[in-house]
Automatic annotation (TrEMBL):
Species this protein is from: Senna tora
Cross-referenced NCBIfam families: PRK05692.1
Gene3D superfamilies associated with the record: Aldolase class I
Catalytic function, reaction form: (3S)-3-hydroxy-3-methylglutaryl-CoA = acetoacetate + acetyl-CoA
Name of the protein: hydroxymethylglutaryl-CoA lyase
GO biological process: ketone body biosynthetic process; L-leucine catabolic process
């Protein structure tokens, strides 16, 4: 079975498209309200069906005055179905993608100022109301190391009656696992690293020692019928070691798969990955674990997260981690920015005709809520653009 995994998920790398010879549009011309000068250019694109279907140029309308207006939404599900995409590059993308929201835990854990428990709980409720199926709630780690999450028990108590999503929590050791179970956790996660140096710095243990701890947690969880998710840090790069070989990631992934993890999330912790490094990493992991057990978790430090997610989808991955408004960071990588913004991921998936069951407008409400509390601008480019350019973004 494992031998066929890569065969089923081979990325089609060599695809050829007809070139479009477009006239030059003046740089000072408004890109969203174009004059008649650029009408011909848009017309060329609209007549090129495959290009228009891929890039959403069906959302361009021509007014009687000769001006062209582009609507500001990627949600084209009312006009296009997955079958209408003609590009071979898109046919390998899953019809449905599960989004795992990590903003309430991963997104907030590095905030210097303590976020009140009530704010965290309200954020979680808003995220659930948007249709997100999985919202990572908190982590049962030592308050000494992560004071922001010292209220883990209180958060779990406050959301125990919230329905509509699952709420996994991180457990670094058996003590944390037992505390999580006592607090009512129904799903837990372990988090080894593919880098020896990072494992010692972040977890105070070697990779092997940490995997041994993960096995203990997995065994205890199995006895209670509690699913265990495995996160792997530094899957393409490490702030201490630099490049991380795909074979090292595959080794840890196989260990997690063999111990019975229900899902394995591959994390580019410092956001240095590009499709050129992500593809060989995924190929190595697909040799040891089935694609339906894998998820990807990209930080957007270098602006590569969406590109990396796209190639992951093309290789068959159908679960993506993200953080509302791009919250998060890495305490061991100075300058590393947060996770990819959930709003941006949903916007892209809408544009691809991929179902997520997530309401982008309600998601933006959650992002605005937490950003207002933190006193910062939203970290989502899609949310920022839609807020400025759309009269009522909640109805997208």
């Amino acid at each position: 079975m494992i031998a066929n995994m890569r065969t089923r998920n081979i990325l089609q790398r060599r695809l050829f498209f007809n070139r479009l010879q477009l006239m030059t549009v003046p740089s000072l011309e408004d890109p969203h309200l174009m004059t008649g000068f650029s009408t011909a250019a848009v017309g060329q694109i609209r007549n090129h069906s495959s290009y228009a279907a891929v890039h959403g140029l069906d959302a361009v309308s021509f007014s009687k005055t000769g001006k062209v207006t582009r609507y500001f939404t990627s949600d084209r599900n009312d006009k296009f179905t997955r079958k209408e995409f003609s590009s071979k590059l898109l046919k390998s993308i899953p019809d449905h993608v599960k989004i795992v929201e990590v903003g309430a835990r991963d997104g907030l854990q590095n905030e210097k100022n303590i976020v009140p428990t009530a704010v965290k709980v309200e954020l979680i409720k808003l995220l659930v109301s948007s249709g997100l199926p999985v919202v990572e709630a908190t982590s049962f780690v030592s308050p000494k190391w992560v004071p922001q999450l010292a209220d883990a028990k209180d958060v779990m108590a406050a959301i125990k009656n919230v329905e509509g999503a699952s709420f996994p929590v991180l457990t670094p050791n058996l003590k944390g696992f037992e505390a999580a179970v006592t607090a009512g956790a129904k799903e837990v996660a372990v988090f080894p690293a593919a880098s020896e140096s990072f494992s010692k710095a972040n977890l105070n243990s070697s990779i092997e020692d940490n995997l041994s701890c993960c096995r203990d947690i997995a065994s205890a969880a199995r006895n209670l019928s509690i699913p265990v998710r495995g996160y792997i840090s530094c899957v393409v790069g490490c702030p201490l070691e630099g490049f991380v070989a795909p074979a090292k990631v595959a080794y840890v992934a196989k260990a997690l798969y063999d111990m019975g993890c229900s899902e394995i999330s591959l994390g580019d912790t410092i956001g240095v990955g590009t499709p050129g490094s992500v593809i060989p990493m995924l190929e190595a992991v697909l040799d040891v674990a089935p694609v339906d057990k894998l998820a990807v978790h990209f930080h957007d430090t270098y602006g590569q997260a969406l590109s990396n997610i796209l190639v992951s989808l093309q290789m068959g991955i159908s679960t993506v981690d993200s953080s509302v408004s791009g919250l998060g960071g890495c305490p061991y990588a100075k300058g590393a920015t947060g996770n990819v913004a959930t709003e941006d991921v949903v916007y892209m998936l809408n544009g691809l005709g991929v179902k997520t069951n997530v309401d982008l407008g309600k998601l933006m409400v959650a992002g605005d809520y937490i950003c207002n509390h933190l006193g910062r601008e939203p970290g989502s480019k899609a949310a920022t653009a839609l807020t400025k350019l759309t009269a009522n973004a909640s109805k997208l």
